[in-house]
Amino acid sequence: MKPSLITASLLALTLASPAAAQETEPPTPASVVAAAPASDWKRIDPADLLVMDLAPDAAGKPRRVVIQLVPAPFSQGWVGNIRKLAQAQWWDGTSVYRVVDNWVAQWGDVDESKALPEGVSEQPDDQYTALWSDVPALYRQAGDIMVNEAERLERVASGAEPNRGDSYAGFTTHSNSWPVAVEAGDVWPTHCYGSVGVARSVGSGGTGSELYAVIGHAPRQLDRNIAVVGRVIEGIEYLSTLPRGPTGTNGVYEDASQRVPILSVRLGSELQEIPQPQFEYLDSDSQSFADYVHVRANRQDPFYLHPAGGIDICNVQPPIRRIPSE
Amino acid sequence: MKPSLITASLLALTLASPAAAQETEPPTPASVVAAAPASDWKRIDPADLLVMDLAPDAAGKPRRVVIQLVPAPFSQGWVGNIRKLAQAQWWDGTSVYRVVDNWVAQWGDVDESKALPEGVSEQPDDQYTALWSDVPALYRQAGDIMVNEAERLERVASGAEPNRGDSYAGFTTHSNSWPVAVEAGDVWPTHCYGSVGVARSVGSGGTGSELYAVIGHAPRQLDRNIAVVGRVIEGIEYLSTLPRGPTGTNGVYEDASQRVPILSVRLGSELQEIPQPQFEYLDSDSQSFADYVHVRANRQDPFYLHPAGGIDICNVQPPIRRIPSE
User: I need a labelling partner for A308 at 20 to 30 A (CA). Which of A24, B218, B274, B326 fits?
Assistant: First the structure.
């Protein structure tokens, strides 16, 4: 739901009369989301949230980053570790220590000297995909998806329609409102802007103690090479606006004073505050979501002269919003 | 040439012995670029650079953003305007006034009240594509590209290889080291991270006085809907790290004090400094460039367990570097 690239005067106009135009204009991604019935939204279990509080900024403003953990069957070895690390308050006192433009912000224990909690261990580096049949919602729709894809490819091969493919997989879709890629019976969560993954060494899948968030163009080449364990659903700007580290150190801040202290990381269900933050997402099995994807791929509002007729998986991030506290 | 997502200890190791491993390791994007002969690099004419100096940051550090203007046959109506605006020093005293996370940083005259220089006029909104035949380098290779693409689609349709397509066009390639998309005889420059485009109103193509740079995932839906006029080749971090504006104003800073003053914008050829900044790019018609794309799409270094077998056009930005002054 990004605003179009309109000039300042039109921005003002748009802001002055948001309601007036609504009835006559074609649907936009924002209008589809606004019209989605309550039943199309699903609450995120607070136990599946990771809430990271950074030290306040120079002006004293709090900086909270909220991450949703990826559901089964993906990356559950690391997600289990991450729950243990949060419960042990392991990240408290660590830092965001590396920021690379158009790449990632990375955090954890820069010295890798801090002892890990009991039961947190290196995961193997071959658990980056699940089987298509392990993903119930997709598996239910598998026949339809496969037939549609085969028919689409036939139309493309015959020249009846232009190709609209994915550069990294046979095709992409959504599972439980997570972007996933599918190929040869495998399915995996994709690296998009805001995705959270596990830094690792060669020959290991890492533990999940060193994490990064994507702050640039989707680095899809990391798919199936690193565990995607979550996505930032609020506060990504507290990571994406951080000063970039030097090129010569691969973006690791040279001076300890440049690191951004992490005050605490907690599971949403263990936050000592009332009300706890509550979020909901638009269900990817709903008609509203299908409409949302369609409208994003085929913009009909007057600004768009050439609707794209396609969209890449990382440009159609599922709508997620706060549930107002009662 | 982004570093892999390796943990801090391995980063240190890598930094400690960069040369030792070089001989035995498979090629990486960085090693291909480093090995490219001088003849594969082309100098950018300083007249095709737009050099924007922002006010220094809070610590007094200068902030220079260098933009390369897109060559013919693309967007030349706007590029002509932009040359005139720079020559008239029109942007001096204007500001970066809008920043939206995972979207753009936008600059110009926020009030749109400043008179435009003689000869700078609104451009039509139907000049976003060129004909395939207007792009000499592509046209020369057109037969080969078309045959390769047709053969690829046949293999895909027969199930012999997985599809690797583009989500927004029939296919993508490079022309003069610019990323372009091709479909139905049309070719256009793509919106990638760092691309610079022309903000406009509905019903107009804009003048080029209000510009934006992409600071997030490639907004390819803007392709063919907005003029791409250039790309940031140095200093994107001075835009991408700026504080984001409020959602309620579409990212426009509410307080004038938040705007980032633009001290000056000059064509590279008109900069009053010696030496003038000099840049070169890896020629997309060279074997080095072909190798670079191939290696980026098929990573063989030990970190990559599953080479992607494809790459999207915005993940293979052409190498551009400074020419050291003599």
Answer: A24
CA of B145 vs chain A CAs: smallest distance (Å): 15
| Mutate which: A100, A129, A192, A221, vs B, most B CBs within 10 A | A221
Chain centre distance of CA A125: 21
Chain B closest-CA separation from residue A204 CA (Å):
10
Contact between residue B65 and residue B105 where contact means Cβ atoms under 8 Å apart: no
pLDDT attached to residue A150: 81
Enumerate the CATH 2.40.100.10 domain ranges in chain B, comma separated: 45-112+119-277
Chain A (229-288) residues lying within 8 Å, Cβ to Cβ, of chain B: 236-237, 240-244, 248-252
Of the candidates A40, A110, A86, the residue with the CA atom closest to the CA atom of residue A257? A110
Q: Is B194 on the interface with A (CB under 8 A)?
A: yes
Question: Which positions of chain B have pLDDT values less than 70?
Answer: 1-24, 326
- CA A314 from chain centre, in angstroms, equals 9
pLDDT lower than 70: segments of chain A: 1-24, 326
Q: Which residues of B touch A103 (CB under 8 A)?
A: 2-3
ipTM score over 0.85, yes or no: yes
**CATH code matching the domain that covers B45-112+119-277, chosen among 2.40.30.170, 3.40.920.10, 3.40.50.300, 2.40.100.10:** 2.40.100.10
Does domain A46-277 fall under CATH 2.40.100.10? My reply is: yes
Q: Which two tokens stand for residue B46?
A: 């300083």
The pLDDT assigned to B143 comes to: 80
On whether the CB atoms of residues B161 and B154 are closer than 8 A, the answer is no
pLDDT at A181: 95
Q: Where in chain A is CATH 2.40.100.10?
A: 46-277
What residues of chain B, 141 to 180, have a C-beta less than 8 Å from chain A?
A: 153-154, 156-157, 162-171
pLDDT, tens digit, for every residue of B155-164?
887 878 888 8
Quick check: A218 and B220 CB within 8 A? no
* β-sheet bridge partners, residue B106: B98, B212
What is the distance, to the nearest Å, from the Cα of residue A282 to the centroid of all Cα atoms in its chain? 14
What's the pLDDT at A276? 87
At B245-269, the pLDDT tens digits run 999 999 999 999 999 999 999 999 9
Subunit contact A250:B206, Cβ cutoff 8 A: no
Which of chain B's residues have a Cβ under 8 Å away from the Cβ of A156?
153, 157
Q: What is the pLDDT of residues A156-176, one digit of tens each?
A: 878 788 888 899 998 899 999
Name the nearest CA neighbour of A116 among B281, B7, B88, B181: B7
